[in-house]
Amino acid sequence: MWLSVTGFINRPHMLLMCLFMFMAAHAQTFFNTANVVVAVRNFPDYSGTSVGIMKGFLGLSGAILIQIYHTLFDGKPTTFILMLAVFPTLVSLALMSLVQSNPSNTSNDKPHLNRFSLIAVTIAGYLMIIIILQNIFTFPLWAHIVTTTILLIMALSPLQVAHIAQENKLMRPPSPATDPLIIISETQDVEMNLIQAMGTIDFWLLFLAMVCALGSGLATINNITQIGESLDYSTVEINAMVSLWSIWNFLGRFGGGFVSDIFLHRFGAGRPLFISLTQFGMVVGHLIIGLSGNLYIGSVIVGICYGSQWSLMPTISSEIFGVKHMGTIFNTIAAANPIGSYILSVQVIGKIYDKEAQAGGGLCHGLRCFMVSYFIFSAVCGFGVVVSLVLFLQTRGFYNLVLQRRLKPLQGR
Hints:
Layout: H1 2-6, H2 14-42, H3 47-72, H4 77-95, H5 106-136, H6 141-156, H7 158-171, H8 180-187, H9 194-198, H10 201-230, H11 235-267, H12 272-292, H13 295-321, H14 326-333, H15 336-359, H16 371-411
Helix pairs in contact: 2-3, 3-5, 3-6, 3-11, 3-13, 5-6, 5-7, 5-11, 8-16, 10-11, 10-12, 10-13, 10-15, 10-16, 11-13, 12-13, 12-16, 13-14, 15-16
């Protein structure tokens, strides 16, 4: 793509450029599968927290790369494409030998996971402050250098936590009697493959819930600029909301996994309950946008609740269907994202906006442009609440059994 844009190679046919974009877009799926599956295998007892950290950093990665771009290549958009091709590849090559699938004693690793969590939240808060300041003031080069240097130091700090955790593990190996992988495997009768999983009602309940949540959330971010313009938000305000979406997305991804772990371990609350709660939050967020046009509050609520689905769904998939074929299963369920986006972005919000714009002479201003669409989004997410509640009831016995098996070794001490 970079060679095409810079003119180094002749302008490719549109289908060939689509192939380039197809290859680039699927790179994220490989990253996503690798880090989520390894996280679940390595920390089965706190899979929500570990997946939340991984998915959270994936959500922050775009904001981090943009800060690097502003520091090194500001004003050179073609170089940004080259940077996207080179930087992630170099990082992967440098660090992939350190990544191992090696189940841990997560009762010992919980403090280290908490330190990872603190670092992740700190980076998100730092990025939020920087993004807001950059949308208010014009940063000179020295300010970009200072803020990005601090950001990179913070992004590298988890390596020290991992090093300390590895040293502690070597000094105190896990006891087989309390190995959480044994507890999980005892609870799961079989490790389902994709075909077996698709033959269960749980699979389709989770898939339908994701169509509702992911589709409406992606439709919002895809159209947030047009929504802001129709509601007469300034360019600075719209840019700030678009930039901060990655922060709200992170908070949802991290929080969904972390909070669901707490409630699972303390009260035996199944994770599908949190899909219901966050989809109810999306109902509220969509209604706020549709009724009042308040994108500040609405986009925060929708962004956080949308992000939470990306940590809850893979974790639930691993727990219900097992980890052996987890990558295939949760990526198949993730197809709900483009399916939901097509239905709600193209067939709902796109067509309704075009109809309103034609009535207004080609442009649309005011709440009427998107009000009906967001009423539909609210109804869709309301249906998602019901579907995920059914899934919660379906799996309640399973999660109770997980809690009992987990507590059994502790009661024997």
